[in-house]
Each structure stands twice: as C-alpha cells, then as structure tokens.
C-alpha cells in the first residue's frame, strides 16, 4: 500500500500538474476566444432554456433540461465545494481561490463545447436508453482524423471514466462524509459508509430517469441550505469580507501564503481543486447532459454553462470567503503543514464565523448536513457516468449491474480509508479522463464552432419568419 501511495504522490507532483497547466487553461481560453465569450453573451438564454421555455415532451432524449442540469450538478456540487476548496486554500493559500474562479469562468466555455458535442454524437443503446459523452464524440468525431486510434482513445477515456468514478465520485465523497459525521455526531465511519452505500444503490438501480428525478429535488434544496449558511457567516463578519477579497487577489500572484512553491503552488492547487469541483474539461458532465430531451445540441450546451457558474463561481466562492474570513487556514507551529485541512477546516471556519452570535453549533450542522447531502448526490450521479462507460465498453445489462454493485461496495471502502490516500487517488484519476477529452476538444473545435453558427443562424431565421408573419 505504501508503494502505491508513493506512486500516487509522485504522479500528482509531476505528471498531473503538467497535464492541467498545459491543457486545461489554454483550451478553456481557446474556446472562450473562438466562441466570442459565449459564457457571458448567452448567459440569459441559458437561464431561459433551463426554465423549460423550449421544452417539448416529444423531443428525443430521456430527461428534461432541468433534470440533466440537476444530474450534472449533483455530481459537481460535492465534497470538492467543502473539503476540496479548503484543501486548496490550506496548501495554496487564499490566492488558490482566484485560480478556482478562473477554472469556473473558462470552464463554462469548456462545458459548452463538450456538452454540445455529446448531444451531437449521442446514440441509443441496446436497452433503448440514450448514451453519449466524450467516448462517443472521440470515436465518431475523430475517426476521419485519427483512424483506428480514435477508437483506442475512446476506450482509454471510457476506462478512465470507470476508474475515475471510484476515485472522484465515490471514495472522497464517502470519506469526507464519514469524517464529518464522526466529528459532529461521533458516528463510526464504517456505519456512515454502510448507510450511504445502501442509499446510493437503491437509487442507481433505477437508471438515469430515477437519478434525474432524485437530483432535481435534492440539488436545489442542498445548494440553498449551504448557500444560506455561508451567507449568514459573511453577514455576521461583513466587515472582513472586503479584506478577504483583497487577500485572495493579492495572494493569487504572489503566493505568499502558500506552504510550498509560492505563486505556482497557489495556481496548481486552485486549478486542481477547481477542476475537481466543476469537472470542466474532464468529460464527465457531457455523459449526463447527453440524455437531455432536445433536438438541438447547442441548446443543451448552453444549459451546461450554468453548471460551473453555480458550482464554482457561486458555491466555491462562498466557501473560500468563509475560510479566509475565519483566518484558520494559517500553517501550524512547524510552518510545514496547515493546522486544519479538508472538511475540518471548513467546519471550524463556519463555527468561528457564527461564534460572535452564539451559533457556532449551527455552523457545525451546516457543514455536516451539507457534506452528507453533497456526498450522496455526487455518488449517485457519478455511478451513472461509470455505467455509461461500462455500456460503451461492454453493452450488457449484466455488466452494468455488476458495476453498480461494485460501485456501492467501494463507497464503504472509501469511508474507512485515510483522507490523504483517497484524495491523492482522486487527483490522479481525474487526469485519466481529462487528457484524452481535452485533446479531442482541441481537434473538434471546428465542429463546435460550426454547430454553434448553424444553430444561431437557424434560430435567427425562425425569428425573422415569425416577425414577418405578424
């Protein structure tokens, strides 16, 4: 086990950061420029689409725009928003929050590109369910450019997705949840792991329709609960919010508070945890969005842009400010490690922020309850990503059922492992998906641009005909 942990640490210190720095930010910038900042120009249209303005039951697909967004959000709004942000600030300093924001804004353009492609190249599997995602647009979209290697790259992505479903959407969720419940209510970690494993299995056996239904009810509630708790902390400490923002912007380019590596550490920790949180460029969300009921690929691409905004720009910012305002991210007496890390840092920050009004106990409850809800929702949606990847590799209902059983068992395993090992594996697993997906996005950028122009030209033509008719 020690050799495996040493390999993970080496990979995450050398290979992983190079992949993220060399591809994630540049590709996000490329799509922002190519699409003329579509994440800002068409933000209002995204809201109109997800509200159901264009929905028709007869449209092809399995779930509504809102359910697709909720399913994807239930995977992204998870432990990364609570423990991931805290870890980034603990090791990279307050400046890491700035780079988390950058992954959010650039991630909106990335999400648009990958989800548009996912809808355009989606298929129907042997069970009559919609199947889509990077493995499909890699195989179908790149065959002419890469020949047989496109199929190999698609398989590598699908295998990476299965591995990552255990690393990103499974073990870190149950581990953080178990730690939070143990700290708040002294619940044994094995018991927490067992309960969430059973709950997840009961939901995921129903497939995307049940997942979408549960997510559309769970996500708005859990997000609102956490946001209101965070806003209460900031309201109580309103006089410190301005200086917290100033510290974040200053430290983003100086890295003075980072424990190792200064500015580079702040940037790497911010990008890693930003990607872990919003998953833009990783290729996971397109799998959920591909099931949306719509005849227009671009329309769901526009909906998907809301995901990084809600997850990273809103919720991660809230967590960052609560932590920086609390000031508990400082290193311990040795100066070599943070005094608090992960969900513990976020919990202590909420407690500290509400202590002036005698509600420290409520701060603990906000984090503990949110951790459970976030972990549960993320695990549920990530199981769908994994079973779609299994379907791509082995189109067999039996194989999918076996995967779901194993997925539920691994949830229990993650709850009783050390936090360092679990998060290290998650960081490594992310790159198994991100690398082939980001390479494919670069090569399919002309297709994204073509689909975008075609859609808006068609919508403009329809609007002109309607106007002339009236």
Give the tally of β-strands.
2
Mean pLDDT: 85
How many domains, in number, for the residues?
1
Any idea what the shape is?
A: globular
**Sheet bearing the most strands, described?**
2 strands, antiparallel
Total of helices: 23
Instruction: Identify the quaternary structure here.
Output: single chain
CATH topology: Amino acid/polyamine transporter I
Task: Please report the first level of CATH classification, the CATH class.
Answer: Mainly Alpha
Summarize the structure.
The protein has helices at 2-13, 15-34, 38-41, 43-50, 65-76, 79-92, 96-120, 134-141, 143-146, 149-167, 171-185, 189-204, 207-236, 238-254, 262-278, 285-289, 297-304, 306-326, 342-354, 360-393, 397-415, 419-443, 445-469, and strands at residues 123-124, 130-131.
Describe the structure.
This protein has helices at 2-13, 15-34, 38-41, 43-50, 65-76, 79-92, 96-120, 134-141, 143-146, 149-167, 171-185, 189-204, 207-236, 238-254, 262-278, 285-289, 297-304, 306-326, 342-354, 360-393, 397-415, 419-443, 445-469; strands at 123-124, 130-131. It has 470 residues and is mainly α. Helix 2 packs across helix 7 (96-120), helix 11 packs antiparallel against helix 20 and helix 12 packs antiparallel against helix 21. The longest helix has 34 residues, at 360-393. It starts with a helix and ends with a helix. The mean pLDDT is 85.
Give me the secondary-structure topology:
Blueprint: H1 2-13, H2 15-34, H3 38-41, H4 43-50, H5 65-76, H6 79-92, H7 96-120, E1 123-124, E2 130-131, H8 134-141, H9 143-146, H10 149-167, H11 171-185, H12 189-204, H13 207-236, H14 238-254, H15 262-278, H16 285-289, H17 297-304, H18 306-326, H19 342-354, H20 360-393, H21 397-415, H22 419-443, H23 445-469
Antiparallel strand pairs: 1-2
Helix pairs in contact: 1-22, 2-7, 2-22, 4-17, 5-13, 5-18, 5-20, 6-15, 6-18, 6-19, 7-14, 7-15, 7-17, 7-18, 7-23, 8-10, 10-20, 10-22, 11-12, 11-19, 11-20, 11-21, 11-22, 12-20, 12-21, 13-14, 13-18, 13-20, 14-15, 18-19, 19-20, 20-21
